[in-house]
Write a structure and sequence with these properties.
There is one protein chain. By secondary structure, the chain is of the alpha/beta class. It has two domains: 34 residues; 181 residues, Glutaredoxin (3-Layer(aba) Sandwich), CATH 3.40.30.10. The chain contains six helices and nine strands, in the order αβββββααβαβαβαβ. The strands form three sheets. It has a five-stranded mixed beta sheet with strand order 7-6-3-8-9. Strands 1-2 form a two-stranded antiparallel sheet. β6, α4 and β7 form a beta-alpha-beta unit.
């Protein structure tokens, strides 16, 4: 934390400009390195998803493919939940979600028009009963699609429940005639970018990707990798 005792030194405008130009070179180097890592992430190999996962939403039970809402690409935020654990190790969900995930959700715009223009759908998935999720969503005033994976092994299969400090964002693709997935939930994506607009650096089917990363799709196949 910056206090009056440890503020940077006061210098002339010329000295400040020299320091700023020196820092700008480092910032550009960091940007190029991040772009290179983003490109490598988009080229990660894929793993097939064979399990028919189901989720609960405002209109009842849906499958993973239904979440795409007709678009070829899905961004999924694994939104963590708060639990009380009794002496026997049984979990009892509270009425609130993770504070860090909530902070991230506050950066999701009320309209997802920019994502939809990129043929991408965004949803949140939480391992908590849907009635808890719906009440919390209304309380917070959020409008993004949010589904419950409560009672399923979806979160465990994707390691989203391995560590409560991790809130990974997964990106999914629909293509050809099978279900597939790639990547791991451990990454720096959300923490590095810090806000929702940074999500556009991740989707492999975005305008910024190289031509060889593009995929064709039908309604039957799901691919995913970590943002």
């Amino acid at each position: 934390m910056t206090t009056m005792e440890n503020l940077p030194e006061v210098v002339s405008r010329e000295e400040w400009l020299d320091a700023r130009k020196e820092l700008l070179l480092k910032e550009k180097e960091l940007t190029r390195a991040r772009d290179h890592v983003n490109a490598e992430r988009r080229r990660l190999p894929m793993v097939r998803i064979d399990k028919p996962y189901t989720f609960e939403g405002p209109n009842g039970t849906v499958g993973l493919l239904d979440m795409f809402e007709g678009r070829p690409q899905l961004v999924m935020h694994h939104f963590m939940w708060m639990f009380d654990v009794d002496a026997d190790g049984n979990e009892h969900p509270r009425d609130t979600g993770c504070s860090s995930c909530s902070s991230a959700a506050d950066h999701i715009p009320a309209t997802l028009r920019q994502l939809h223009a990129r043929n991408t759908t965004l949803v949140a998935v939480t391992r908590s009963p849907y009635d808890k999720i719906a009440a919390f969503r209304e309380r917070m005033g959020w409008t993004f699609p949010w589904y419950s994976s409560w009672g399923s092994d979806f979160n465990y299969d994707f390691h989203a429940t391995v560590d409560e400090r991790v809130a990974p964002v997964l990106i999914h693709f629909r293509t050809e005639a099978e279900l597939a997935a790639t990547g791991t939930p451990w990454g720096e994506g959300w923490r590095v970018r810090g806000d929702f607009p940074g999500i556009y650096n991740g989707p492999g089917n975005s305008d910024s990707q190289t031509p060889e990363c593009r995929v064709e799709y039908t309604d039957e196949k799901v691919l995913h990798f970590l943002l």
